[in-house]
Each structure stands twice: as C-alpha cells, then as structure tokens.
Amino acid sequence: MSANTKMPAFMKAMSNVAAENKVSSKVIKAKMAAKAKRAKEVSKERAEQLAEEKKAAKELAKLQKIADKEAAKQAKAEAKEAAKLEKAKAAAEAKEAKAAEKQLAKEAKALEKQQAKEAKAAEKLAAKEAKALEKQQAKEAAKAEKKLAKEAAKAEKKLANEAAKAEKKKATKTEKAEAKKAAKLDRQDLIQEIVEKLGGEESKQVEVEV
C-alpha cells in the first residue's frame, strides 16, 4: 500500500483506541500470574469443597448408619411391644373366653337346676292330680257301688216280694186244691158212710122179713 494512502477515519479511531489500550508484557504476565493464582485458588477451593463434601457424605453415611441402627432398634422395640401387647390381648381374650365359658356353665347349671325343680314340681302336681283323680274315681266307684247295691237290694226285695207273692199265690192255690180235695174226700167218705149205713139197714130189713 502506498504511504500516501489515506486511512479511513473509523480505522484511525480504532487504531487510536488500540494504542491507548495497548497492555505491556509486564502487565500481561502479572495478569497471567494472577489468573494462574486464581485458578490455583479455585482448584484448592474446589478440592477443599470436595473434601468437605466427602467428609459431609461420610458423616452423613455415619449418621445414616446410626439412624438405621436406631430405626432397627426402634422397630425391634416396637415389634417387641406389639408382641407384648398381642400377648396381653390374647391373654385378656383367653381370660374373657374362660369367664364367658364359666358364666355359660353357671347359667346351664342354673337352668338345669330350674328345669329339675320345675320337673319335680310338675311330677308332684301330676301325682297330686293322679291321687285326686284316683280319690274321685274311688268316690264315684263307691257311689256307683252303693247305687248298684241299693238297686240290687231293691231288685232283690222286689224279687223277694214277687217270690213271696207267687209263693203265697201258689200256697193259696194249693190250699184251695187241698181243701177241695179234702172236701171231695170228706164227701166221698160221707157218701161211703151213708152207703154203708144204708147197706146195713137193708140187711137188717131183709133179715126181719125173712
């Protein structure tokens, strides 16, 4: 390019700015050293941070282990307590079941006793009723027997009266027949006597006539 070539204004301005902002090598080295130092510090800080994080992680793992141990211990204690409560519950239920069984047995015994008492009372009542019925039947039988005896006596009396009447009638009839027979015999005897008497008189008369 020719020395006489005119530089554009904006380039000239830029060149002026560059000239004004031009950094010396010493400054550059200082900046680089500062940058390296800063990088070293950042690296150290990062290493320290990582170490802290590792330490925190280790501590956290330790705390987690302790927490897990405590949780396991707590779980074990809770399981033990739950088992204890379950055992106590089972014992209480068994006790209640035993008490209920005892109560049922007591009620069954009381019911059996009551039923036996009622059965005995019913048996006693039945015996009483049977005795009363037997007494009533005996009374009725005695009454019927008395009635039959009365009727039998009445019938016997009637038969005796009828027999006596018949006997009287028979006797009267017999007496009449005998009286009639006797009268007849008396008549025959009288006739015979008369005949005999008349026969004797005839004999005498014949004798006289002769």
Question: What is the topological layout?
Answer:
Blueprint (H helix, E strand, L loop, with lengths): L8 H13 L3 H185 L1
Question: Could you estimate the helical fraction of the residues in percent?
Answer: over 70%
Give the percentage of residues in beta strands: under 5%
Per DSSP E runs of 2 or more residues, the count of β-strands stands at 0
- Give the radius of gyration: 84 Å
In terms of structural class, how would the helical and strand content be classed?
A: mainly alpha
Name the average pLDDT.
80
Order of helices and strands: HH
Distance between the termini: 270 Å
**Total domain count:** 1
Number of DSSP helical runs: 2
Task: Name the shape in a single word.
Answer: rod-shaped
Describe the structure.
The chain is mostly helical. It has one domain. Helix content is 94%, strand content 0%. It has 2 helices and no strands. The longest helix is centred in the middle third of the chain and has 185 residues, at 25-209. The protein is rod-shaped and about 255 Å long. The chain starts with 8 loop residues before the first helix and ends with a helix. 0% of the residues are buried. The model is unreliable at 204-210 (pLDDT under 50).
Key structural traits:
disordered C terminus; mainly alpha; 0% strand; 2 helices; single chain; 210 residues
Brief synopsis:
94% of the residues lie in helices and 0% in strands.
